[in-house]
Amino acid sequence: MKKIILPLLVAGMCAAPSLTHAMSNPYVSLSGGIGLLNNSTVNGNDDAIEYDAGYLINGAVGLKGDSGRLEAEIGYHRNSVDSSDYYDPIGAHVSMWTFMANGYYDFELSNGDVSPYVMAGLGIADASISDGNWGPESSSTEFAWQLGAGVGIKTASNTTVDFGYRYLSPSDAEFDGGKVSLASSNFLVGIRYNF
Q: What is the top-level taxon of the source organism (predicted)?
């Protein structure tokens, strides 16, 4: 994994000055939606964990060019634990802060008001699992990546409503009981304001 990540980061750092020069229109965005954590097995005790549908909130600042965007994003995700083979899940939940650098490619259609897009992001995820009946809270900070697609609909000259899907995949979180996968499918609705 490190052999892949390092060249990507170096390439991104080299390209950043020219990209930011071309992208001179700043914006802010806020989005929220439903987060579906994949069911997982704890590597260590083979505990099978299932999660309820949860929620997430993202905020970002970025720069937009003719057909691309670069942004820095912070997000909060939370899902309750639905069932566990070994523990009583009552009161237990997983929460996660994400800090991501995202890139977008916008496909401008002829009318200019509707713009499908694809996106990718790299960053870190700071996850924790609550005590509930599982014992003390445990936390883990890991590398994370995400891929997504969606559509932006311009509702005013400087305002866009965004409908999107993202697959978020942190590296396995190392909690006290073992390693747990926290990959998720996320469905988002947001608003973007261009200055």
A: Bacteria
Residue 11, H or E segment: helix 2-22
CATH fold of the domain at 23-194? Porin (2.40.160)
Domain boundaries, the chain: 23-194
User: What's the burial of 76, exposed, middle or buried (CB within 10 Å: 0-12/13-18/19+)?
Assistant: middle
Strand ranges inside the chain, DSSP E: 25-37, 40-41, 48-51, 54-64, 68-84, 93-106, 114-129, 138-156, 159-170, 173-175, 178-180, 184-194
Across the strands, what pairs with 156? Answer: 159
92-116 pLDDT tens trace: 788 999 999 999 999 988 777 999 9
Q: Is the pTM of this model over 0.90?
A: no
Q: Which of 126, 130, 25 is nearest to 81 (CA)?
A: 130
